[in-house]
């Protein structure tokens, strides 16, 4: 018998007219973890960044994540709709964030910060990359709490198959949000955190993040229900998979390149 999604109240705390949503709290947890773990890593002088750098990167990174995530969703998933009505891009309360866009926003922040502070892009990227998967983990937990981005139909015999009432069809589905949280979030964090505990060739940590996230996302997309307004596309792949393929290639190419440079 399939499980039923718990139907969490999306509002975690209400203070008069102010409502704090679980999804927002998940973002906040991700940012707090970045601050805490970043300052911990900054104590190791060979990494080349200071606690002040961590706080500055967090401040600007928040804007990169939110602006990049929102613009990425609008341009990658519904460009015609939002280009016809650009003011709707500002309606963030209606939902719509892209992990790929958020990553691009963070890359832009790192490029600008590296140039202004006299650091190299790879120096910052290697420092930041092992912490980013925790933010992805909390974001997917937020998706699960909201009962959104559910998975494709699963066998009713699957012990963890789950019915999402929001889908409105009563079909047992894969809880793909939890797959993503575990694979591209927690497991990738553990691997990169351990692997980067000692000096590695410059750029290889960031390259492995891109490769690991790309592969994890590509695999989980086979269990995630495609957006209804897009469906599956060329070669039976989802939009998320097509967006992830370049990331896999970039990660693999960057890893080989940086190893050779080293």
From TrEMBL:
Main location: membrane
GO CC terms, sorted: plasma membrane
Protein name, as recorded: Phosphatidylglycerol--prolipoprotein diacylglyceryl transferase
Membrane topology designation: Multi-pass membrane protein
One of the GO biological process terms: lipoprotein biosynthetic process
Native source species: Sutterella parvirubra YIT 11816
Top-level enzyme category: transferase
Family: Belongs to the Lgt family.
Keywords: Cell membrane, Lipoprotein, Membrane, Transferase, Transmembrane, Transmembrane helix
Enzyme Commission number(s) from the entry: 2.5.1.145
Its job: Catalyzes the transfer of the diacylglyceryl group from phosphatidylglycerol to the sulfhydryl group of the N-terminal cysteine of a prolipoprotein, the first step in the formation of mature lipoproteins.
Transmembrane segments: 20-37, 57-80, 92-114, 121-141, 178-195, 202-220, 240-257
Compartmental location: Cell membrane
Residues that bind a 1,2-diacyl-sn-glycero-3-phospho-(1'-sn-glycerol): 140
Pathway field: Protein modification; lipoprotein biosynthesis (diacylglyceryl transfer)
Pfam families: LGT
Molecular function in Gene Ontology: phosphatidylglycerol-prolipoprotein diacylglyceryl transferase activity
